[in-house]
Amino acid sequence: MTERKKRVDAFQAGQGEVFLISLKAGGSGLNLTAADYVIHLDPWWNPAVEDQASDRAHRIGQARPVTIYRLVTQHTIEQKILALHSQKRELADSLLEGGDIVARLDAAQLLALMRS
Question: Nearest CA to 102 among 113, 90, 88, 91?
Fold first, then answer.
């Protein structure tokens, strides 16, 4: 058994109160159904990466509510990243719902979205 698996199993069994992982590790197949809270300290440019990491606590077997916090300081790049999250989610939602937001964007706006 790997050290990582031992630590995850110990946390799941209630032998720890805090389990710290990076966003990359959070997206690698961990299931942490013993978690009550997820705290993001460093937002990633792609909101789906954060969602996937948060979802590690929302797996089959989770019996308690899970609260997710995103800690962001005002006037920082992280605040700008969260604004970008909002724009990307709006665009994705519009595309998935068959909306016409793309039709309303000109070439310069589409290029700006791809560069951000």
Answer: 91
| pTM (2 d.p.) | 0.61
- Measure Cα distances from 24 to 54, 62, 70, 74, 95 in Å: 12, 22, 16, 25, 27
Between CA 51 and CA 6 the distance in angstroms is 25
- 76-100 pLDDT, tens digit per residue, is 888 888 888 888 888 877 776 665 5
4, 24 Cβ separation under 8 angstroms: no
Domain ranges of the chain: 1-71, 74-116
